[in-house]
């Protein structure tokens, strides 16, 4: 069974070791008169305070049962981090790598090919299903439901759009897996690996690049351009100065007064908005966010000048040796656009819209990491709940820090990512463990995705309380991050998000604060 079994991912015994309850009774149910006052106080504490909000009692352990939260409540793991002082993980990269069996890092030719063929097959089957909807309804379902034919057609098309959108997303993540990077990870010492990167399906870089190019071009994504910017993200994840995506806005960028001088009115003037405006803003950016990022680097990394895009081979995102790949990416998208225009000429605009573009919008809305960024041009305190935004939730959480340069290391940045059971089994099947095992992906980006669940089990044992998992309902987690991940303080070396009232749910340990100052 994988590491994320059960509704919340981990069984009680995997996530919480068996505890021995402390009870002021003997085995026959009779009161123990020799129990000390300390034990009695412990028992009262253990029976009245929620498990995940308790401080640790030395030499005392209790048994943790699974905690099931509702749709609009925080997951138990998140509750456990709330209010708990934070200290960076005191581990080395060698400890992480030594903990994982090396066979989990090797690719399997047949397994990798199976996933590629499976996803392509699902896409073809769903296209065939869509082409048969009219026949299915007119020849079969109409005989059963009578006059509700139109409603049944709409229902079947919605079913097609959802599942085909997930298949398109699977193409995105398969292309993501075959990227290749070369980088050096540093955490106190240089620790280089000659295969560090996303060469996660086949040993051949040419095979990986070819598959990634085809998969991404089919969904109008510039493979080599996105590969370059995503490479930068992996090299500097969670670094406020150097990360390519999800860089928090700082207090000074909103022209807020210093922390000690800011009033509630100052926050309200900048961050308050009407619900109607919020809804319209989210709807607009859901439709345009991904393409505005690709086309204009809109609110991307602030190291790049305005107008930076993913289509010009001379954009500052790219290095000189990457320019040929950028041109190939542009050609791939142009060829796909030509194919779509030809399909419209032959089959009509409505047909291509139904078969391709509506599922594509499901893909874009589910992957749109930049909705959060784009919303900040209006107001960062959006409370709208959009469709799943996979990559946003992987790196945005009120209980997870970002680092300024003086405190950032690669191993700290990789630990500042979040595993979520996004979409349950559908997320595992179609998104290829991208959300369920994202922490392992950052530490072992060249490992095949189908081994990430096992790798997660091993590295979580090393990271311990520094392994971040959140079983909160996806849509509530999205709402929570939209409302609480607003800005960070300029002077905090280890910075936690603050909400629109300037409050953070977590602080750095007091002794560590003295050290970083």
UniProtKB/TrEMBL annotation:
Keyword Transmembrane helix tagged: yes
Regions crossing the membrane: 154-172, 276-294, 326-347
Domain Fatty acid desaturase: 191-469
This protein's name: Fatty acid desaturase domain-containing protein
Pfam name, any one: FA_desaturase
PANTHER family, sorted: OMEGA-6 FATTY ACID DESATURASE, CHLOROPLASTIC
Entry keywords, A to Z: Membrane, Transmembrane, Transmembrane helix
GO biological process per UniProt: lipid metabolic process
Cited InterPro entries: FA_desaturase_dom, Fatty_acid_desaturase
């Amino acid at each position: 069974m994988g590491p994320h079994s059960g509704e919340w991912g981990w069984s009680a015994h995997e996530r919480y070791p068996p505890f021995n309850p402390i009870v002021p009774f003997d085995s026959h149910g009779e009161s123990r008169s020799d129990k000390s006052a300390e034990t009695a106080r412990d028992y009262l504490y253990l029976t009245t305070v929620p498990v995940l909000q308790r401080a640790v009692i030395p030499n005392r352990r209790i048994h943790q049962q699974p905690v099931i939260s509702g749709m609009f409540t925080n997951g138990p793991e998140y509750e456990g981090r709330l209010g708990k002082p934070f200290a960076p993980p005191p581990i080395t990269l060698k400890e992480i790598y030594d903990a994982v069996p090396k066979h989990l890092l090797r690719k399997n030719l047949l397994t990798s090919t199976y996933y590629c063929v499976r996803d392509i097959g699902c896409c073809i089957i769903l296209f065939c299903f869509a082409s048969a909807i009219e026949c299915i309804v007119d020849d079969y379902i109409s005989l059963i439901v009578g006059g509700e034919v139109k409603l049944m057609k709409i229902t079947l098309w919605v079913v097609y759009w959802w599942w085909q959108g997930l298949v398109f997303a699977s193409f995105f993540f398969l292309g993501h897996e075959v990227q290749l990077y070369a980088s050096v990870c540093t955490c106190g010492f240089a620790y280089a690996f000659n295969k560090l990167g996303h060469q996660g399906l086949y040993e051949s870089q040419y095979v990986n690049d070819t598959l990634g190019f085809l998969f991404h071009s089919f969904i109008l994504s510039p493979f080599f351009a996105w590969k370059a910017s995503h490479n930068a993200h992996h090299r500097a994840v969670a670094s406020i100065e150097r990360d390519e995506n999800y860089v928090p806005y700082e207090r000074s960028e909103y022209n807020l007064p210093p922390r000690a001088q800011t009033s509630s009115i100052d926050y309200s003037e900048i961050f308050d908005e009407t619900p109607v405006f919020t809804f319209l803003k989210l709807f607009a950016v859901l439709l345009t966010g991904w393409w505005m990022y690709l086309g204009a680097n809109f609110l991307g990394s602030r190291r790049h000048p305005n107008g930076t895009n993913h289509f010009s081979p001379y954009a500052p995102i790219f290095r000189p040796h990457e320019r040929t790949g950028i041109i190939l990416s542009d050609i791939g998208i142009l060829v796909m656009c030509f194919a779509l225009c030809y399909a419209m000429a032959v089959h009509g605009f409505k047909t291509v819209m139904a078969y391709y573009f509506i599922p594509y919008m499901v893909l874009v809305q589910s992957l749109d990491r930049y909705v959060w960024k784009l919303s900040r041009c209006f107001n960062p305190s959006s409370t709208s709940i959009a469709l799943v935004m996979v990559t946003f939730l992987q790196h945005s959480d009120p209980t997870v820090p970002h680092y300024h340069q003086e405190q950032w290391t690669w191993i700290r940045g990789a630990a500042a990512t979040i595993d979520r059971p996004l979409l349950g089994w559908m997320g595992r099947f179609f998104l290829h463990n991208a959300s369920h095992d994202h922490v392992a992906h950052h530490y072992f980006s060249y490992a095949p995705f189908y081994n990430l669940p096992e790798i997660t089990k091993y590295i979580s044992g090393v990271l311990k309380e520094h392994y971040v998992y959140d079983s909160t309902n996806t849509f509530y987690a999205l709402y929570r991050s939209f409302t609480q991940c607003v800005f960070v303080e300029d002077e905090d070396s280890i910075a936690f998000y603050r909400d629109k009232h300037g409050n953070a749910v977590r602080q750095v340990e007091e002794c560590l604060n003295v050290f970083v100052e």
